[in-house]
Amino acid sequence: xxxxxxxxxxxxxxxxxxxxxxxxxxxxxxxxxxxxxxxxxxxxxxxxxxxxxxxxxxxxxxxxxxxxxxxxxxxxxxxxxxxxxxxxxxxxxxxxxxxxxxxxxxxxxxxxxxxxxxxxxxxxxxxxxxxxxxxxxxxxxxxxxxxxxxxxxxxxxxxxxxxxxxxxxxxxxx
Length: 174
Prior knowledge:
Elements: H1 5-54, H2 67-76, H3 81-106, H4 114-140, H5 145-153, H6 155-164
Helix pairs in contact: 1-6, 2-4, 3-4, 4-5, 5-6
């Protein structure tokens, strides 16, 4: 059976229409997800702002990178030197893994070298310090281990609840 030019054109139009419909669905879905992500991000910024103001700090400090971490550590610990240890570990770990990755790329080897392993261990130590700091932050608002465990699994939601909830700042609980 022969296919006429008109039948082939109809099949092409149907296929193009299906692809166009699928692309439209994908693009509109991405737009909705994007809008929801932006709204959620804005809510998280507002929650962090409220956490800072509850603790007696200016809210704008919550949106300045690195400085906001310093203030959070100050709210959580009486020993602020731990912030500098955390920051130093994070920087050293990142530098070591970057050096290792560059040397592996130069040697055309995909394997992790000694510096990379040390860098990962150093960054893990930094992450552990950050987790302890977050636990101490919840303690400074009168919240306990259950809140911290909730933070581990649903961190942004717990920040929203802490910021918008009735928790009051009690100071570092060293």
